[in-house]
Design goal:
The protein is an alpha/beta fold and about 375 residues long. Helices cover about 35% and strands about 25% of the residues.
Length: about 375
């Protein structure tokens, strides 16, 4: 059943909900939480579809907050609230209320959502797009016990991860982190099968996929070893290679569906690592509403501490040349190479040197430069 309300209020929406439940023959409320989805008109359909599929596992009241952009200055000074109340087959196993906000009420969405929350039930806020930099201090985020964002939908995903680390609060989570749950489980199980120490790790995946960075930061934080980040054409994560004292441990997924786990001294095994839909990710996040300390530790490790494929830090400043600062034998070896090139350097220096300059001084400076090279 579907009821359309134009220029309405939260009180009228609640009355329409009661009327709709009685009409479909389910006057009792059997929902376990309230899911608030903040999105735009373009992504509202996909977000609502994912929430309806997730409601089969978690019956919930879904509030879709769509902030409409007013075209004229006159419309921006007015406030209007339109709503769609859906109960029954169109709302999955729960209830759905689509709220469209116009004008000044856009900045006060929490005043519209608060009267529609289920009493004595947890609240989860999911920003499908345009998540705030500090979800815990957002007016809607302050109403929730769990705040879900998606860094993959941001314009600059890697910079977004740094902002999330600075503003993290207990209850924050990210769908980019949820996407790597099977990878973390498989890698942990692989390390349980061997009794050796990991010395180096390389994570391979798409360039602008924050899930790759999160997995690399998780491995670096848990194993305390250098972790390199390399790029591939995807889809998503394509492989993890761990160098250990017992040989390489490789988890490779080239097609986004089936992966191959290779451990030194054991036969290769095929592992199901299919890329999951958004509804599966949301359903996983709704299973636990307590703070995710593992995500917080990985996020705070920092993207800038990861290494590139050559083993260097991602943003390491360039230092002096190795020959100048090389101690002991290394510096001596660099000096030993100088006499081999001394004769041609002296000849070229003698031609360019002025008449008054001594021959030894004219040849000494080029010899040092050759040694530094």
């Amino acid at each position: 059943m579907k009821i359309d309300l134009t220029d309405t209020t939260s009180s009228k929406i609640n009355k329409a909900l009661v009327k709709a439940r009685r009409a479909v023959g389910t006057p009792a409320v059997g929902m376990v939480l309230t899911l608030v989805i903040v999105t735009d008109e373009e992504n509202a359909y996909d977000a609502l579809k994912a929430a309806n599929e997730a409601s089969r596992e978690h019956p919930s009241r879904t509030l879709v907050v769509i902030k409409r952009v007013s075209r004229s200055p006159r419309d921006r000074t007015k406030s209007r609230l339109d709503a769609e109340v859906r109960v029954g087959v169109e709302a999955g196993t729960g209830e759905t209320i689509v709220l469209r906000l116009y004008g000044e009420i856009i900045d006060h969405a929490q005043s519209v959502v608060l009267p529609l929350l289920l009493p004595d039930a947890p609240t989860v806020v999911w920003w499908a797009v345009d998540a705030p930099l500090d979800p815990a201090k957002d007016p809607l985020g302050a109403l929730a016990q769990r705040r879900v964002t998606d860094t993959y939908a941001a314009e600059e995903p890697i910079e977004e991860l740094a902002a999330r680390a600075e503003s993290y609060a207990p209850g924050d989570t990210d769908l980019s982190w949820t996407r790597i749950t099977p990878w973390r489980s498989m890698l942990a199980a692989a390390l349980d099968q061997v009794t050796c120490d990991v010395t180096r790790v390389e994570v391979e995946g798409e360039e602008f996929n924050p899930s790759c960075e999160l997995l690399a930061m998780w491995l670096a934080e848990r194993l305390d070893v250098p972790v390199a980040r390399s790029y591939s054409s995807g889809p998503g994560l394509t492989g993890v290679r761990m160098e250990s004292t017992c040989g390489p441990i490789v988890l490779d997924r080239a097609d986004g569906i089936l992966a191959t786990l290779s451990i030194e001294g054991q036969p290769d095994r095929s592992v199901a690592l299919k890329r999951r839909e958004t509804s599966e990710l949301i359903a996983e996040e709704l299973r636990r509403l307590d703070p995710d300390d593992t995500y917080a530790a990985a996020l705070r490790y920092g993207v800038d501490r990861l290494a590139d494929s050559a083993g260097r830090a991602a943003e390491q400043p360039s230092g002096p040349s190795p020959a100048e600062d090389a101690p002991g034998p290394v510096k001596k070896a660099a000096d030993d190479k100088a006499p081999a090139d001394e004769t041609p350097v002296k000849k070229s220096a003698a031609k360019k040197a002025p008449v008054k300059a001594p021959a030894k001084k004219a040849a000494k400076a080029p010899v040092k430069r050759a040694a530094a090279k």
